[in-house]
Each structure stands twice: as C-alpha cells, then as structure tokens.
Amino acid sequence: AECSVLGRLDRAQNEIPVLVYSSSAGDWKDGSGYAVDANSRIESFALKCLQGVQSPCVSVAPGTYRGIRDGSEMRLCDQNLAVVATYRIIGERFLR
Questions:
Q1: Is there a contact between 17 and 68 (Cβ–Cβ < 8 Å)?
Q2: pTM (two decimals)
Q3: Residue 65 φ then ψ, to 5°
Q4: Which of 35, 65, 67, 79 is the most exposed place for a label (fewest CB within 10 A)?
Q5: The predicted structure's pLDDT at residue 44
Q6: Angstrom distance (rounded) from CA 36 to CA 44
C-alpha cells in the first residue's frame, strides 16, 4: 500500500478490520507518542507511534478501523481508507 500526498491509500491489498480497544499517551526513552492495543480476527497487536517519527501520530478512539499492514508498520484508516494514524507494531500474537 502506498500513501499519496493527500493521506489516502492507493492500494489496500493487505487491509484487515482492526478493533482498537485501548489508546494512551506515553513517554519512552526514544520519545513521546501513543500506545494502542488492538485485535484483528486472528491476531492481537501492541502498537506505538512516536511524534515526529510516524505521521500522523495521534491517539485514536476505541472502535473498528481498516488496518493496512506494511512490514512492521500498521496504518489505521477510516472507512473511506483515509489514514487516521500510523503505528509501529511492537508486539503481536495469534489469538486462539
């Protein structure tokens, strides 16, 4: 998936529904930003964004987003595939 200047995803082949159930601000030794806990149908994710590193880096309200995974990065998008926030995947595990 690639993002254009307008923040929309041109190709969303790796799109999955992602349920965000927790979002909080944090300060870490590598900077400040937001941590998010979320689930897809088969995986649980711990996500983190650093202000000034990932863009956009914002807190998101609990709810279902369209997730676009690109390696170790997860973009959360609204229903129209406009990018809401970009996070680094810092932990994941399969749900049983």
A1: no
A2: 0.83
A3: -125, 165
A4: 79
A5: 97
A6: 11
